[in-house]
Amino acid sequence: MEYPQKPLQRQQVLAVCNGNYVEFFAERNIDIHVAKIPQPDTCGLEDLAEQCLECSIPLRFRHLFDRSKLRGNAFIAPLAATVALYARAKRRALSQVDRIAEDERGAVA
User: Is the overall model pTM greater than 0.70, yes or no?
Assistant: First the structure.
């Protein structure tokens, strides 16, 4: 008799950008290596910069440097308080609209 296979437990990592550095939060069984691509001074040297990066990555992490293994990315820019407040207000407004729509669907049924 075959038993259904349990889904793999996904490990969670939280990366928090704080100014010019990034903090990583995770359980103890997570290894993190941070690598930075050198910025070429001349156009057309992006491939060379990527090769330099690959050489600087420890062997145990090198297999991860593959586009198919990319799990997320973000553009890092300063977060102004007004932008954060606007985003919170927008989420609240959308939540209220969702509740109203749900109430309307319930009233029609």
Answer: no
